[in-house]
């Protein structure tokens, strides 16, 4: 492997690499990616990008051994930092003759390793030559078609047709015609296109469905990552063209990686604007596509894997949302996922159908269900704060009430949302309270009694002693005795509707405190 210059590698990762500190030649060749383990005692191959996972750039001992390993192998040291790298560390790197790449600490090491490996795999063999060169995927499809005498279609992993050849007098069958019109592999052809024989193979595979032209297929890969597939339909005998198709797939990988970086950049731009709008709801600056619908999602999982689950679901929302015609803006805040979906973009599926798809995908991926709440339509950035509050309140209600995970709308849960607002208002304004909630709560704390729970259960069931006692797991007579005692102690009149309303609101507010 001849390698890729550091400058080219950094350029390919420019949306992830924040800053590069170089001492020496930026044309230094990078030939591979390895995890740095200075304690392992093993050498590294020349020209490796060494990922300093867990390396503290402020710890002299750790960085000394890392710089020594990089210097001995002629490698480039990659580190993470949220700010400028320490001057002392850079001085030691320069003294050791080691190039240091500084990466945004929010970017997972696994993503850096995957992207860098993909770039190296697709660019290390030199520039492409011959009939399969082309400026974009459509030009590439035409070049391959002209070279092999067939009709080319290029699909991504979601079976969307991202490019196809359009030379004169090309062969066409019903599958190709419908695929080009719908820009997606027709449903009846999916089993053939998803065949394991195709996707597990490194070779060109021959396929033919009944009623269709014969085809050759080859998977488009960048390193170990699968990006899509290239298919060629032939009108007659299939020529020997495996080398040309492999070359075409390799070039397609370059174009698809570039397209992915462009999509990632667009996604990040939307995400930044969305986060700014959530953090500063009164600011009209963020350029968000409105009107839109706000989604909030609670993701289950034990503490040790909850963070990983959140990131997996966040990625899924972005990838599948785009694949189904939406351009979501995404944010992760307070262990919740938020997505802003522009209303009814052309060619997209409706929001309820998208949410159903996302919940199904998460269930199959995490073996667990998520709760999603969607807002009313947001017309202006200033409305985001109120809609987010409603979404959060609805998610809290579903969690606290033990409702089953599902897709809810804020309109469906308007009653508990308004109730929560009333309780919060009463909790924050002493002029709206008569003080009964604090008195009963204080008595419970002092005497270890349970009047708050008893009265709340009784009021929640509209005075139904049977239902309330069952919920509280006490005998009906015990409940009646507690109610009589509470009326004596706190001068309650449970026959007065106004007092019952105030009592319920104040008890809920006091219990929340």
UniProtKB/TrEMBL annotation:
Protein name: PucR C-terminal helix-turn-helix domain-containing protein
PANTHER family: CARBOHYDRATE DIACID REGULATOR, CONSERVED PROTEIN
Residue ranges occupied by any PucR C-terminal helix-turn-helix domain in the UniProt entry: 452-508
One Pfam family matching this protein: HTH_30
């Amino acid at each position: 492997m001849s390698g890729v210059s550091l400058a080219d590698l950094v350029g390919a990762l420019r949306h992830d690499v924040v800053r590069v500190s170089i001492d020496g030649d930026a044309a230094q060749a990078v030939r591979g990616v390895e995890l740095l383990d200075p304690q392992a005692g093993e050498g590294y191959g020349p020209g490796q990008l060494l990922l300093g996972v867990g390396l503290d750039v402020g710890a002299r001992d750790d960085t000394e051994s890392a710089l020594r390993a990089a210097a001995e192998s002629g490698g480039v040291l990659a580190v993470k930092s949220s700010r400028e790298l320490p001057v002392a560390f850079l001085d030691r790197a320069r003294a050791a003759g080691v190039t240091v790449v500084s990466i945004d600490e929010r970017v997972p090491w696994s993503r850096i390793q995957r992207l860098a490996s993909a770039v190296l795999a697709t660019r290390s063999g030199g520039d492409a030559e011959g009939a399969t060169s082309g400026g974009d995927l459509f030009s590439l499809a035409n070049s391959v078609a002209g070279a092999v005498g067939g009709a080319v279609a290029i699909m991504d992993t979601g079976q969307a047709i991202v490019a196809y050849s359009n030379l004169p007098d090309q062969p066409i069958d019903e599958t190709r015609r419908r695929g080009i019109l719908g820009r997606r592999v027709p449903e009846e052809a999916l089993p053939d296109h998803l065949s394991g024989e195709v996707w597990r193979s490194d070779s060109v595979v021959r396929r033919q469905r009944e009623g269709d032209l014969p085809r050759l297929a080859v998977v488009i890969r960048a390193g170990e990552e699968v990006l899509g597939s290239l298919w060629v339909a032939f009108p007659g005998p299939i020529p020997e063209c495996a080398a040309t198709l492999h070359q075409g797939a390799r070039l397609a990988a370059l174009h698809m990686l570039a397209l992915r970086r462009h999509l990632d950049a667009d996604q990040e731009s939307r995400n930044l604007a969305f986060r700014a709008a959530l953090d500063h709801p009164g600011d009209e600056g963020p350029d968000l596509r409105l009107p839109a619908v706000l989604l909030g999602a609670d993701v289950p999982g034990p503490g040790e894997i909850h963070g990983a689950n959140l990131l997996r679901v966040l990625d899924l929302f972005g990838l599948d949302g785009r694949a189904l015609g939406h351009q979501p803006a995404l944010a992760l805040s307070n262990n919740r996922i938020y997505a802003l979906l522009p209303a009814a973009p052309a060619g997209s599926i409706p929001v309820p159908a998208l949410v159903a798809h996302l919940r199904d995908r998460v269930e199959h991926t995490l073996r667990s269900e998520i709760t999603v709440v969607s807002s009313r339509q947001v017309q202006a950035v200033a409305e985001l704060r109120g809609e987010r509050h409603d979404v959060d309140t609805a998610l809290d209600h579903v969690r606290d009430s033990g409702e089953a995970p599902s897709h809810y709308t804020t309109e469906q849960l308007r009653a508990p949302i308004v109730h929560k607002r009333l309780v919060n208002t009463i909790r924050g304004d002493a002029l709206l309270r008569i003080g009964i909630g604090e008195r009963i709560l204080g008595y419970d704390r002092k005497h270890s009694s349970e009047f708050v729970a008893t009265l709340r259960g009784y009021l929640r069931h509209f005075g139904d002693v049977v239902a309330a006692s069952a919920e509280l797991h006490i005998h009906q007579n015990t409940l009646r005795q507690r109610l009589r005692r509470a009326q004596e102690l706190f001068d309650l009149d449970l026959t007065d509707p106004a007092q019952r309303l105030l009592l319920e609101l104040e008890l809920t507010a006091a219990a929340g405190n």
